[in-house]
Amino acid sequence: MNSFLQEFKQSLRTLRHSPSFTITALTVITLGIATNPAIFSVVNTVLLRPLRAPDPDRVVAFITTNQQGNTSAASEIKFNLWRDQTNVLQDVSGYYYTSLTLTGVDRPLQADAIHITRDYFRLFGLSVAQGRTFSAEEEQSGADHVVVLSDAFWKRAFGGDPKIVGKVISFGDGSYQVIGIMAQGVETETPEPPDVWLPFPIDVNSTNQVHYFFAAGRIKPGVTIESVNAQLRITTEEFYRRYPKTLSANRKDQFSAQPLGDTLVKDVRQSLLVLTAAVSLVLLIACANVANLLLARAAGRRREIAVRIALGASRARIVRQLLTESLSLSIVGGILGLGVGVLSIRAVLALNPIDIPRIRLKGGNVTMDWRVLAFATLLTMVTALLFGLIPALQTARSDVQAGLKEGAGRAVSGFRQSRIRGALVVGEISLALLLLIGAALLIRTLVALHSVNPGFDGRNVLATRTPLEPKLVRAETANQIVIDVFRRLRALPGVESAGYTRMLPLDGSFNSLPIVIAGRPLSGPAHGNTRWMIVSPEYFSVLKIPVLRGRSFTDADRLDAPLVAVVNQSMARQFWPDGDPVGAELFIGKGLGPDFAEPARQVVGVVGDVHDNGLGERPQPAVFVPGAQLSDRRTAGRAVTWVVRTRANPGPLKAELQEKIRQATGQPVPALRSMEEVAGKSMARQDFNLLLMGIFGGSALLLAALGIYGLMAYAAEQRANEMGIRMALGATQSDIRNLMTIEGMRFAAAGIVIGVLAAAGLSQYLESFLFGVKALDPLVFVVIPVLLGLVSLAAVWIPAFRASRVDLLSALRNE
Length: 815
Known about the structure:
Helix content: 40-55%
Number of strands: 23
Radius of gyration: 34 Å
Strand content: 15-25%
Strand order of the largest sheet: 4-5-10-7-9-8
Structural class: alpha+beta
């Protein structure tokens, strides 16, 4: 240990005596290492950190698989069967998220709520600091309203009132008795920690088929997930025996379970792994660059090393000392890189609030825990070996006699060392090309996405989401609230039109319901599935969604008028491929439950398609119904998104619009967002990937340019005598410059060819991230190699130009 400390101190002294080399090497190492802990901190938070639950490996989510794919959404009839599988499962829980408005206080306060079955607390190990959780009776339908508050909400809304347990508080849909306060610091896997927990009553005899919540449970000790899935296959058969005419039977649903962690991160796992591979390439390029620096430095230390060996130092001791110097560089670079990397990724996540699961708002969960520190430590050690081992071995194997004969003149590196340095540069360029092609493909994808017509005009449109009205208010009263909101908004100067919808395009998941077309033969419970959208009459005009046939909704389409619907173009093509849907009658959600028991609706119009889920996804069939035609049960407790179009820049009107909506609804109103912000958020993940790949690609390009520049600059210095002799024999400056440029560009060309072949072979792994561009896009595979070639030419030309300007007498005198 003492020997290592002595060598470590000696290496620091040696590096201090070479400040230019040390600063350059540390800069390259820091750049290479920084990107790796940055991405690993996100990977650690999303993929590696255990779920916040006891025995997290045994917590599973219930999945339904059919022809349309997999879904984790659950229905009540399925949940009741899953909860009965007590031989393999325990703590089976249902839950869904919503928002409530705290009333009866000076100013209404919005609260994020989660409705849960009572086993949820035990499943996720949640405990209360005061009071208790729900009883079995309180979970049943029709029980008195009770609520458990989070510690943060208790302090924010009630000032930490120590006597709050037992008191009755008011939310928008009624009165609730506070029965408990959650322990401080309780964490859940929800996007943001809930403010309140409420019972989720599920009738054991329910026939409700609507998929509107999530279900999870814990595998019993001693049971494998394979056994659970075998049991769920039997449960699927039992489900069809009980409910042979359900929509699930028509779709041939199959039940299964998978680890809840896998369900949460399924949409981002692949992109994070690709980013991890990208930062690994940056690190390899950095290591090759530092190795080149060390090889160049080693040529100048041949005499020093030869003297030490002549005085009795073993070659193993020399190798150990040189590796210690590399480790010293790597440790300092690793510390700097760790700090820079984690701070940088937090800044990127704060500026770009991407919807990556488990990271919390603005990356609040991305921290340096023991895994990140261990990764950074291991990375530091590996990095030191990657860039230090070859130079150390080459230096220790140098000829002692040749080294002792070297005087104050130039040290000449051997053919083997020059070949290794050239190979490292070729590797740098090929890896840089890989990253640049990946970044260019993502840029092309983003350009293609921005060129997609979303199906609506979002310019000068603002939106905000609020609860419509309390559960105890009838649909007629809710419609009066809507009328009052529109009256106040339209009275404002600068407002062109206003409407509302339950789901805003590009801003959420949409309900899919079965459709039955009246008078058409039916072989199953429905003719198909379509999205279900609730809108106001002016919704289409606010977003300028064109009416292609028939008409839109009017104020006359009320609950006491004939029921009507409007379909989009995709639905018209799918359900009426050879006819006109206008005038047809259809049932929406027939058989799902009492909330959807209504007469047939007549289709009165066809509107244009809108990219609801994302600009990169095809528009789905959708049916629209007027909000004023919903019954009391289907109106109750719903939240709506208000949309307002202004005649000019809507920015100055935001505060006034917010206040008018608050006055009419009596609810707290979040800040209004522009539709440009909504569209930007829908593309946040693509922007995030592009930003990081752009940073990695730029870093790789810079490192590759530095690598080939360093190689040629060193070669020019070492060959100054040769160039002097060539000039004495009649070579011109142009000849010398061309000679050096051609030699340097051979390395660049070799790296570019290898990089293009590697990129072509690996491009298939980027297919799932691309839109509107092929993985083997000809433009990218031409422009990027040319760009890298030009950068390489510049990096080669500068030292070549300097070599051509060498002083002839000085060069010959050194010879």
